[in-house]
Amino acid sequence: MKNPFRIWFPWLLALAPVALLACASRPQADARQQPTGKPRLAVLVVFDQMRADYLTRWQDLYDKDGFCRLQTDGAWFQNCHYPYAATLTAAGHTTLATGCSPNQHGIIANYWYDRKLGDEVGAVETDQYTLVPDTGGKSLGAAPSRRKRLTIGDALLEQTKGMAKVVSISIKDRAAVLLAALQALICAWFNTTSGMMVTSTFYNGGNVPGWLTKFNKERYVDQWFAKDWTKLRPTLDYEKLAGPDDVKYEGTGYKQGKTFPHPMTGGKAEITKYYFKAMELSPFGNQVVLEMAKQAIVAEKLGQGDTPDLLLLSCSSNDLVGHCWGPDSQEVLDVTLRSDLLMKELLQFLDEKVGKGQYLLVMAADHGVCPLPEVMQAKGHKATGRITPDIFKAKTAAYLDEVYGDGKTLDWVESIASGMIYLNQKTIGKAGLKPEQVEQKLAKWLDKQTGIQKVYTRAELMAGPIQDDPIGAMVQRSYDPERSGDLIPILRPYYLISDSLSLKDTGTYTTTHGSPHEYDTHVPLLVYGAGVEPGIRKEKVIPQAVASILAEGLGIQPPKSVEAAVPKGLWKK
Ligand SMILES: [Zn+2]
């Protein structure tokens, strides 16, 4: 095997490029704390967009062999919060894998504006690698080129001299890629153009195992076409447990409608990319991840060798369903109930193939989600609403013209990406102004606008650790001077930026996450299996601990950048 530490990213060579906050000093492994079991396989299951309260809210409904098994036989951390502001998919997955915050690993959002390129870039976007199988030209490959830190999988491969196997599977490319090791045996995700599980030439030279080719050929993903997504447990009172089925501003997905049953055709008579998009936007996307995981366990003999292996799974459908119908919808209840059964099936499969007590499983999430403002309003909560993004572009530019324009209309805003404002430095220079002066003036004005809690400026975020403002400190942990914008607006709780306030077609995106508020930061964390002391744990922990937990469970040193130690007492004495 090639040297797993073939380092070709400049980020990995530069050890600590402009660390804004001193990374919390690296915790040393507590010598007294060692897991008693030696797992042959460690499994990380990330539910993309799962709030911590889903576990308690619907606890009575879970199967005793599903989530309940983790809740009672595992360590259930009930107070796990992301300590940074940009609670987004790419950032969350990278944090779980590296054990550090976005200001260290560099994945500040799913997309940001690249000033040198003059364009928006995706976290795993690349034109250096292509998709395998190639979907016909337009789809770019994906690679972790922008991730600046190594992951738990990299640590495992380095310390086992490449003997371990690391497999990463998701529906979303960014989730699979950002969890995976550089030298992962398999890193695969779903492509809605081809309806296939794909990888990129970055991984394993683009070599795809025969079983994966067979998986694609057998068209597992087509099985739900023209079947409806119906309620898993029709005898339950979904309305009482979640909310009404038809709610103002709910999405309609890909011709899936607002209410059950949801058609699974994508609005076409034949299987097209619209079906694949509808399939992702239903619990069936997670079934694809599970089925592929099972095949990977068997075909690659995960957990069967002398060296422990690592399986990384990310279930994306929870996120897509949550964005479309919102956290208080019957659809989110249904996808969560089905996630419980997915966990049951996975645990049973691991019992059978790897052996009870022979594996360690961590269940986590990358972020939560904001309730629909319309649902909050219906409940009588007044401080909630939607604001249009022109506040940060057209209205911001108009304000700066008024203050500095001297009667002219100038080009003040270079870009807006993931809610960050990138000012046009040329315009500022030509007007004879200092960037910090413009930032501060604008931030003061924006602070007074509806729905805005506080706008942080580059100058403020670069001036050293923010001590007396917890939200400011969270924004700093998400801030990368090269990649982040000049102004970082933080909305008030329960406010959303919405492109369209019209109710005619609310599409697939009616709520979101990405704030430092509790509904976005508070996530489940459960640790189950080999050597884990069961129990409910109330202490505050951060998801950065996951990389440390996996490392200690596997008997290896964690990645160098980890910011959180293994919670004390996690392992049986
Ligand atoms: Zn999302």
Task: Explain this structure.
The chain is an alpha/beta fold and 573 residues long. Helix content is 31%, strand content 17%. The protein is built from 21 helices and 19 strands. The strands form 5 sheets. An 11-stranded mixed sheet has the order 6-5-9-8-7-10-1-11-18-2-19, sandwiched between helices. A two-stranded antiparallel sheet has the order 3-4. Helix 11 runs parallel beside helix 13 and helix 12 packs antiparallel against helix 13. The longest helix is centred in the middle third of the chain and has 26 residues. The radius of gyration is 23 Å and the shape is globular. Zinc ion (ZN) binds next to helix 12.
Describe the oligomeric state of these chains in a short phrase.
Answer: single chain
Structural class of the secondary structure composition?
alpha/beta
| Count of strand segments | 19
Number of helices: 21
User: Ligands bound here?
Assistant: zinc ion
Instruction: Enumerate the strands of the largest sheet in spatial order, edge to edge or round the barrel.
Output: 6-5-9-8-7-10-1-11-18-2-19
What gross morphology would you assign?
globular
CA(first)-CA(last) distance: 37 Å
State the helicity in percent bands. 25-40%
Q: Can you lay out the helices and strands and say which pair or pack?
A:
Layout: H1 10-13, E1 41-47, H2 53-57, H3 67-73, E2 75-81, H4 89-98, H5 102-105, E3 111-114, E4 119-122, E5 125-132, E6 140-142, H6 152-159, E7 166-170, H7 173-179, E8 186-191, E9 196-200, H8 210-217, H9 238-241, H10 273-280, H11 284-299, E10 309-315, H12 317-325, H13 330-355, E11 359-365, H14 373-378, E12 385-387, H15 394-404, E13 413-417, E14 420-423, H16 425-430, H17 435-446, E15 452-457, H18 458-462, H19 470-477, E16 487-491, E17 495-497, H20 518-521, E18 522-529, E19 535-537, H21 545-554
Parallel strand pairs: 1-10, 1-11, 2-19, 7-8, 7-10, 12-17
Antiparallel strand pairs: 2-18, 3-4, 5-6, 5-9, 8-9, 11-18, 13-14, 15-16
Bound molecules: zinc ion.
The site of zinc ion has 5 residues, from helix 12.
